[in-house]
Structures are given as structure tokens and as C-alpha cells.
TrEMBL record:
Residues 1-43 form the GST N-terminal domain. Coiled coil: none annotated. Residues 51-177 form the GST C-terminal domain. This is Glutathione S-transferase. PROSITE patterns: GST_CTER (PS50405), GST_NTER (PS50404). It holds the Pfam family GST_N_3. It comes from Brevundimonas denitrificans.
Length: 179
């Protein structure tokens, strides 16, 4: 943990050490921007400014209003007895449900991916958060959100990531989504 903290100030995932440049990158948005630049730029962050703004917006909304509450609810489950916070859990579940509603509305234009017709930062950022946060607040009656998540789950890169993560999946103190 001390080694991890030396790289990532709050010991959060993702953290990427680029051994070619010697840079250490954290915060998923920054890691993805770095990878986009390595790939020639203009793909994960679209070159067209309007499309880039939409990708950044969806990324920020997911990280703040879905990832944020998830990353508060989960650590509360590890608190010692007597320090539970059901009121805080309910407030955060409401924020998370609001994020699902916002995404469902955003997807109403029929887009294939999180920010349009190409796979971007929005999808990279959302894939893990959707996968785990739906264990806390199910997607429910939000068919477009469910379909987007299914498309993400079918991406070969994400299939590989989930295979790598499988041995650790049960460490999350919430059962896999059943709906
Ligand atoms: N805003 C950060 C969120 C990072 C974050 O909270 N990561 C979680 C996983 S989704 C984590 O590392 N949790 C483990 C912990 O806090 O011990 C980002 O986008 O990278």
C-alpha cells in the first residue's frame, strides 16, 4: 500500500506508470487522455470539438454522479459496527439513480456509444462504473442504459479486462446484478 500511495496520492485505481516516458498518471480521464495521445490523438477524445465536449461531459457525469456515490457507499460497508450511515447510503443511492436517469435521457437520441457513434473516453470511463454500480442501484426500467452496458460488456478489450478482474470480483461487498 505504501508503494501504491507513493504513485497515486489517494491510492485509487486506475493508476498508470508509463515506463517509456517515466510518467505516472492517475484519474481515469487523465489516463485515457494519455492513452489517446499515444494512439495518435483524436479517437478516445474526438478531434471535433463538439463531439469532444460530449465525451467529456458523459465522462464527468459518470465519474461524479455514479462513481462518486458508489465510492462512498462501498467504503461505508467496511466501517466498524456502530458507524453505519443508512441516511448517507440512501442519499447516495438517490444520486446514483439520478445518474442512471440522466444517462437514459442522454441515450434517447439512439447513439450506439456513450457520446455518439464512435467509442470514446465516455465509454472507457463508464464501463467499469456501470458494471459495479448497478450492483448497488439496479438499472431497472432504463432499456437504453441496459443496452449500452451490454454493448460495453461485449467489447473485446472490456471482456479481457473483466477476465483479469474476475479473481477479485467477489471482494466487492455487493452481489452481481441479477436484473
Ligand atoms: N475520480 C477517480 C475515481 C477513482 C476511484 O475512486 N477508484 C476506485 C475504484 S472505481 C478505487 O480505487 N477504489 C478503491 C479504494 O478507494 O480503496 C478516477 O476517475 O480515477
Amino acid at each position: 500500500m505504501a508503494q501504491f500511495r507513493a504513485l497515486s496520492p489517494f491510492a485509487k485505481m486506475p493508476t498508470l506508470v508509463d515506463t517509456t516516458t517515466g510518467e505516472t498518471l492517475y484519474e481515469s480521464t487523465i489516463v485515457i487522455e494519455h492513452l489517446d495521445r499515444l494512439a495518435g490523438a483524436g479517437r478516445l477524445i474526438p478531434a471535433e470539438p463538439g463531439a469532444a465536449l460530449e465525451a467529456r461531459l458523459v465522462d464527468r457525469m459518470v465519474d461524479t454522479y455514479a462513481g462518486g456515490p458508489m465510492n462512498r457507499i462501498i467504503p461505508r460497508k467496511f466501517r466498524p459496527a456502530g458507524h453505519e450511515d443508512p441516511f448517507g447510503d440512501a442519499q447516495d443511492a438517490e444520486i446514483l439513480a439520478g445518474a442512471w436517469d440522466w444517462l437514459e435521457a442522454r441515450l434517447a437520441d439512439g447513439r450506439t456509444w456513450g457520446a455518439g457513434e464512435t467509442f470514446t473516453l465516455a465509454d472507457c470511463g463508464a464501463a467499469p462504473i456501470l458494471t459495479y454500480a448497478r450492483r448497488l442501484v439496479p438499472f431497472g426500467d432504463r432499456p437504453r442504459l441496459r443496452a449500452w452496458h451490454q454493448r460495453l460488456m461485449a467489447r473485446p478489450s472490456f471482456v479481457r479486462a473483466l477476465e483479469d478482474a474476475a479473481p477479485f470480483g467477489d471482494l466487492m461487498p455487493a452481489p452481481p446484478a441479477e436484473d
